[in-house]
Amino acid sequence: MSSELFYQPITSLAAALDAKKLTSVELTQAVVARTKSVEPRVHAFNSFDEADALAQAAASDARRAAGQSRGALDGIPIGLKDVIAVTGQPLTASSKMLKNFVSPYDATVTEKLRRAGAVLWGRLNCDEFAMGSSTENSAFGPTGNPWDTSRVPGGSSGGSSAALAAGEAIATLGSDTGGSIRQPAALCGVVGLKPTYGLVSRFGLIAYASSLDQIGPFARTVEDAAIVLGAIAGHDERDSTSFKTDIPDYRAELTKRKGPWKLGIPKEYFAEGLDPEIGAAVEKAIAFYKSQGCEIREVSLPHTQYCLDTYYVIATAEASSNLGRYDGIRYGHRSTAAKDVVDLYFQSRAEGFGPEVKRRIILGTYVLSSGYYDAYYLRAQKVRTLIRQDFLNAFREVDALLTPTSPVPAFKIGEKADPLAMYLLDIYTIGVNLAGLPAISVPCGFTQSGLPIGAQLIGQPFQESNLLAIARSYEQGHDWSAKFPSL
Amino acid sequence: MNYEAVIGLEVHVQIKTQSKMFTRVAAGYGHEPNTLTDPVVLALPGALPVMNKAALDAIIKAGLLLGCEIAPVCKWDRKNYFYPDSPKNYQISQYDQPICLGGSVEIELPGSARNIMGEHKKVPLTRIHLEEDVGKLNHGATDSLIDYNRAGTPLMEIVSDPAMHTADEAYAYLTSLRATMIYGGISDCDMEKGQLRCDANISIRPVGETKLGTKVELKNLNSISFVRDGIQHEIKRQLAVLERGGTIVQETRDYDGQAGTSQSLRSKEDAHDYRYFPDPDLMPVKVDAEWKSRLQAECPELPFAKQRRFMEQYQLPYTLTSVLVWDRALADYFEETAQLAGPGKAQGVGNWIVNDLLRELAAAHLSLATSRVRPAHIAALVKLLDAGTVLTNAAKEIFVEMAATGDQPDAIADRKGLKAAPTDTNELEQWCRDSIAVNAKALAEFKAGKDSAINAFKGPIMKAAKGKANPKLVDETLRKLLAAM
Amino acid sequence: MSSAPQLDINHIAKLARLALTPEEKEKFSQQLGDVLHHIEQLAKVDVTGVEPTAHASPVFNVWQPDVARPGLAVVDALRNAPAQRENMVVVPKVVE
């Protein structure tokens, strides 16, 4: 375990804060200093507000001194992906379209983190409007992977995973539409949790694909992820898709829930295209669970081969409509080249959006256009039903599924120019979003060249407590999270 | 060749709610620009919609009032199009699962005379669905200014079948529909405030043809009389085109009610591709029997049903009912007064309300709610009149005073000395005898068959009674005495 | 396997209000042609009698009671507006 403050998990820092061995201001200063030192190489942040963070930290210290600590997150610097609204702070979605946008309101998760006493720290880089798997689609430049800054951190929440891996935050939030938390977590060697659809409010999250988007935490340990999840989960009447369910004390549940569990291995997830080193690492994880007395069963998710297509129809269709609001009228980039009000839309959107966003808007507009709706969107929604049923069938036999998170480790910035090749990186993660399930990526080793590998555990709807406990039992048998990149 | 017009109306009605359709910021009219907004109204990044329960109640109630079938399940769809008044550049609406299907609006066509009831018809409805209103554009010389206060207001779209044939029918349809909405407390339907807006689809075809002709959509019919004028104008325009040997072009036309002209809105011909799809931010609506029956219990009797009942139950003439029933408060006021006045007095009550009360309220710029004359006043006055305590002219004077002061009619009659003389028949008979006795000439003329000669006796009698004798009674008494002579 | 359908990039870009350069049009047409070709395999799935999924965990009647709450102050509502006058958003003249 590193002795550096900025590499400590929340659990240790909270204990130190409670024991008055540390103040939030000291911790925040350490994180700020670390950020300033590594940002030129990592570029995980679109912006940060040091004065604001230190003021929050001072307020936290005052609460603790008065015996009014709000719990484990009070005084902990947490970074937010730049698609989550924070009052008075920029909200850009890493797009030129929103370059100068300042949010006049807080997302629900932001409010919840404030209530938990967290120090909201910085606006984290991502693929533009969360569309991508490498963070290369940011209008403000790519983020480097802290393990090798010439490589991508994954995406779309690459700033969130990189900032955490580089010690620029103690935990971060990202959003996951097709793997955008789990894949960058895997590529950066941290824990990333995508909760069940509806567990965490989407109010204040810039929408990419509304029926798939979900906010979740990046953390150093499974226990940290449980703490952050507990703070942000819960029904929100401002999000009609948010689910009314009791939120357990996820951290307490971790110690209550003990195996052995029944784990399913979906055979379709170990087919061609999987990097052999990753395959081997996941096999070792399977062997570990077996050694712990878990029952391992091969299962089949027969519609897996249709996940990618289903996803790209549904996600782009929803995106094409969700991104209609970015027109430069009420806010956002307004072209000065337009010849009239109609042209203002065409020019502002042409200038404000990057190529991947334009591609997806065009694809989504096409699949919804007259004459194609039934063949694409409606059919994809039906296939989505079959994909969800595949998972629910598997869960009749097993508690969770174990798979690789990403078929490949971090690749070089600029290496994948073809959109389809990039889309194929999501094959293990998108089924989870289509089915609305919770899933977590935990570090499960390194390649020979020292790049992190992640394993994905997929859980039953709203059974995050089980999922976290299963992940933790693996984590406790390994020390991957004690390794840090040399930056 | 003879042609007939075929008219269908699309009516947008704003639902009267405290907050907007998909967010809880206040809805309203006449506020300072952009003071009724929030992240949802402005479609800021990350904002999400949440349904307004009261708006759902209102549209279901509207559907029940109009005899629609209420869909057991309906959903929300996005209608995608770009326009500066549309903050999201999609409108949340209902595409293939509207909440209300079918139903009809009962209308009355003009009768042959003002006091004769016209023909009644039912105009079938296609559907009613719920959606959200857009913002308002204010056009300047070189630019346009956008106020989003109206954006997101709950809006019903009521679509009729193409089943009307004259501008009068369309006018009657709109009048009846508006009254129904006001009766149900669903909307105030003030067209000046844009709470009710109407577009008309108009085509013409040879009489006997069943296929619809090419339709023209007429927009901006923003007063109820412009609807009639605009449709009339459009039918004439289409007939003129055909008579010239031309063909009708499918288009949208803008009607200028002030000038009485219309012009084509170019650009709207672009075939629309709204890319409707189910809104993933909203959950579907399920309407069960319990919900429906609770709203059914809140549905009021509609104007035409009330009119039939008033004519039957109170024996009111058509002319009175046609004034009373269109204003729910006025109809309620009438019924309360009629109950207080007692059996057989309803027509008198109706006359006082329609003639005197409405006149006094208009003169004083008062509404029924602020009227000083309450049902008990009118009922008391009718009783005084009926008992002969006051005479008609005195009652009229009392009414004016009542309207001015709110005092009870009995007190006014006392204060102003307006009560008729005591009905002491002996005294009256004596005055009559005295008058006959001193006017032999008139007596002879009357006996000779000149009926008007009786009036000559009345002056002295009234003089003796100091003007407070009941003229009807005087006349009756004189005739009785004269007959016996 | 059917051939990938033709995507009329001009028409779709117009619907989406995106001004594309000739280079973008050519590149996107080719790239999206590949993606659409891949998506074509959805046609192979037998979806007879399958209900479409709009939400992973659908519930009905999610609403709030009609109680008005304060919204944004005008200054916050217009804070990000590229052009404003008289507390309204300004756009080039809209011709209806």
Descriptive report:
The complex is a heterotrimer of chains A (487), B (485) and C (96). Chain A has two domains: 5-264 and 401-482, Amidase signature (AS) domain (Amidase signature (AS) enzymes, Alpha-Beta Complex); 305-382, no CATH class. Helices cover 39% and strands 12% of the residues of chain A. Chain A has helices at 10-18, 24-42, 50-65, 108-115, 158-165, 182-188, 222-232, 250-256, 276-291, 307-322, 341-352, 355-368, 374-394, 419-423, 430-435, 464-476, and strands at residues 45-47, 77-81, 119-124, 171-176, 191-194, 214-219, 262-266, 295-299, 400-404, 439-446, 452-458. With 485 residues, chain B is of the alpha+beta class. In chain B, the strands form four sheets. In chain B, strands 1, 3, 7, 8, 9, 12, 13, 14, 15 and 16 form a ten-stranded mixed sheet that branches. Chain B has a three-stranded antiparallel sheet with strand order 6-5-17, with no helix packed on it. In chain B, strands 4-18 form a two-stranded antiparallel sheet. Chain C has a domain at 1-47: Glu-tRNAGln amidotransferase C subunit, N-terminal domain (Histone, subunit A), CATH 1.10.20.60. A two-stranded antiparallel sheet of chain C has the order 2-3. The model of chain C has no long low-confidence stretch (mean pLDDT 92). Chains in contact: A-B, A-C, B-C. Chains A and C meet through α10, α11, α12, α13 and α14 of A and α1, α2 and β3 of C. β2 (51-52) of chain B pairs parallel with β1 of chain C.
Tell me the layout of helices and strands.
The complex is a heterotrimer of chains A (487), B (485) and C (96).
Chain A: H1 10-18, H2 24-42, E1 45-47, H3 50-65, E2 77-81, H4 108-115, E3 119-124, H5 158-165, E4 171-176, H6 182-188, E5 191-194, E6 214-219, H7 222-232, H8 250-256, E7 262-266, H9 276-291, E8 295-299, H10 307-322, H11 341-352, H12 355-368, H13 374-394, E9 400-404, H14 419-423, H15 430-435, E10 439-446, E11 452-458, H16 464-476
Parallel strand pairs in A: 2-3, 2-4, 7-8, 7-9
Antiparallel strand pairs in A: 1-3, 4-6, 5-6, 5-10, 9-11, 10-11
Helix pairs in contact in A: 2-3, 5-6, 7-16, 8-16, 10-12, 10-13
Chain B: E1 3-14, E2 51-52, H1 53-65, E3 69-70, E4 73-74, E5 77-80, E6 90-93, E7 100-101, E8 104-108, E9 120-132, E10 136-139, E11 143-147, E12 154-160, H2 167-183, E13 196-206, E14 216-219, H3 224-243, E15 251-256, E16 261-264, E17 277-278, E18 285-286, H4 289-298, H5 303-313, H6 318-324, H7 328-341, H8 346-364, H9 375-386, H10 392-405, H11 409-416, H12 425-437, H13 440-447, H14 455-464, H15 471-483
Parallel strand pairs in B: 14-15
Antiparallel strand pairs in B: 1-12, 1-13, 3-7, 4-18, 5-6, 5-17, 7-9, 8-9, 9-12, 10-11, 13-14, 15-16
Helix pairs in contact in B: 1-4, 2-3, 6-8, 7-8, 7-9, 8-10, 9-10, 12-14, 12-15, 14-15
Chain C: H1 9-15, H2 22-39, E1 63-64, H3 74-77, E2 84-85, E3 88-92
Antiparallel strand pairs in C: 2-3
